[in-house]
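re: the backbone from monday

yeah here it is again, tokenized this time
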């Protein structure tokens, strides 16, 4: 199955939809290349529109982008806890709480009677956090949330979906971060 255009092209461990939206949002920054898709308004607007998190007519300023980066890191902290890190504290979760309070959900019922929830246009935040927050809530309810993790390599932090049977994945890729972390551990043991 081809991945949506808003997912990083080098994504090797994609989450199922709609959790893929959360994963791709967290992965809008890449530490190795110092690439941040939420740094500049034009780049951010393009990504957020493609992912369905922003309306093409809505302008994005640097304050909204700063808030988006803070929400991203709040989510990354939650994903780090999924791999065994400490749970995020109140201060870590504050940007996510602020995004939730800025949401004004709009409920719609289609002709078949299916209920949809979207961000109400023109109210609250210029970024449609509702879709992202619903993906988190649904994944926490259905048990898939614990499989979405942040790479344990603190120099990486890439979000990946752990499909292993034992749910013990710790790194985005064993060939890269896994080998680096194991080699660091080996060198530390040898020095001791």
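seq for it, each position gets an aa:
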């Amino acid at each position: 199955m081809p991945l949506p255009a808003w997912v990083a092209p080098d994504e090797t461990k994609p989450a199922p939809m709609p959790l893929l939206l959360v994963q791709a949002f967290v992965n809008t920054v890449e530490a190795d290349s110092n690439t941040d898709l939420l740094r500049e308004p034009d780049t951010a607007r393009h990504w957020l529109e493609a992912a369905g998190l922003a309306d093409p007519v809505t302008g994005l300023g640097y304050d909204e982008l700063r808030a988006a980066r803070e929400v991203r890191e709040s989510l990354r902290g939650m994903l780090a806890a999924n791999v065994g890190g400490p749970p995020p504290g109140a201060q870590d979760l504050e940007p996510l709480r602020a995004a939730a309070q800025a949401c004004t959900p709009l409920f719609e019922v289609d002709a078949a009677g299916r209920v949809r929830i979207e961000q109400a246009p023109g109210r609250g935040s210029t970024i449609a956090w509702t879709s992202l927050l619903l993906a988190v809530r649904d994944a926490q309810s259905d048990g898939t949330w614990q499989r979405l993790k942040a790479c344990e390599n603190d120099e990486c932090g890439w979000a990946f979906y752990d499909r292993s049977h034992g749910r013990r994945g710790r790194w985005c890729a064993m060939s890269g971060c896994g080998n680096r972390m194991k080699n660091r551990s080996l060198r530390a043991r040898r020095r001791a």
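The beta strands are 29-30, 35-36, 105-109, 115-119, 148-150, 159-161. The longest strand covers residues 105-109.
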